[in-house]
Amino acid sequence: MRCVFVQFRCHPGQTYGVADAIYDREVVSELYSTSGEYDLMAKVYVPEDADVGHWLNEKLFDIPGISRTLTTMTFRAF
């Protein structure tokens, strides 16, 4: 599995609904509320054989209330 971090910016007043929808999909390892430019941050494990962009689009990015995302790829732990 490949670990990626995804940050979500939500439409005003939609953060809790987006967080509930993300949890309902059962594809994130951890989900946090954050301060700054983005409202939520998720730790996601993507299957090694999957294309990260397609997988995230199919599993998460169609949730209503998301206005923008930022995906950070990871490479190896130290």
Automatic annotation (TrEMBL):
It holds the Pfam family AsnC_trans_reg. Gene3D superfamilies: 3.30.70.920. Residues 6-76 form the Transcription regulator AsnC/Lrp ligand binding domain. InterPro entries: Dimeric_a/b-barrel (IPR011008), Tscrpt_reg_AsnC/Lrp_C (IPR019887). SUPFAM superfamilies: Dimeric alpha+beta barrel. This is AsnC-like helix-turn-helix protein. It comes from Albidovulum denitrificans.
